[in-house]
């Protein structure tokens, strides 16, 4: 079976590469708009599914292919924090995350020509109080722009995280313990 990763995210590519399994990355771009009143859990699962489907459609020979895709969202109570598009928005996001917890959800989908499996994993992340002078400093690091919630736990954003409950790699973009199990069930073994 040939493994494909339908993702432009460098973090996802690095995480999957750690397994040492050969795979090909596909640059999928889909419409990521959320439907009116679509629950967050349904939205993130639909995004993962649509990315995997779009990935399979890019292949000349989809038979024998296994396409992995994922989507990550940051939920602060009822609000979804997307990728910040400006310095102001990024600063507002960081202030809103300060001194409290939020939930990072990643859904991943594994798709073959015949079937699809979608799984969602949640991690609770606690932020310490973010100082006002750190808000401008963090923007200048350039880390916020391409990340849901406007921070990267794996980078300098980790300086704001006091603790987490749940999977760390889930926050980075791919819950590896669950992905490994799902790949195994699909017939791909990465050790032994
Ligand atoms: C919260 C958080 C998010 N992120 C990233 C993971 C994802 O790449 C991104 C969420 O956006 P996504 O839309 O899930 O993914 P993407 O657009 O980067 O890539 P693709 O759709 O092609 O797979 O935010 C971190 O890297 N670290 C973090 O701590």
UniProtKB/TrEMBL annotation:
Location, primary (coarse class): cytoplasm
Protein's GO biological process: nucleotide metabolic process
Subcellular location: Cytoplasm
Keyword Cytoplasm belongs to the record: yes
Residues the record marks as site: Important for substrate specificity: 11, 72, 154
Alphabetically ordered keywords of this record: Cytoplasm, Hydrolase, Nucleotide metabolism
Cofactor: a divalent metal cation
Source domain of life: Bacteria
Pfam assignment, any one: Maf
E.C. no: 3.6.1.9
Active-site residues (renumbered): 71 (proton acceptor)
Catalytically driven reaction(s): dTTP + H2O = dTMP + diphosphate + H(+); UTP + H2O = UMP + diphosphate + H(+)
Any GO molecular function: dTTP diphosphatase activity
GO cellular component, one term: cytoplasm
InterPro entries: ITPase-like_fam (IPR029001), Maf-like (IPR003697)
Role: Nucleoside triphosphate pyrophosphatase that hydrolyzes dTTP and UTP. May have a dual role in cell division arrest and in preventing the incorporation of modified nucleotides into cellular nucleic acids.
Similarity-based family: Belongs to the Maf family. YhdE subfamily.
Name this protein carries in UniProt: dTTP/UTP pyrophosphatase
Species for this entry: Thiopseudomonas denitrificans
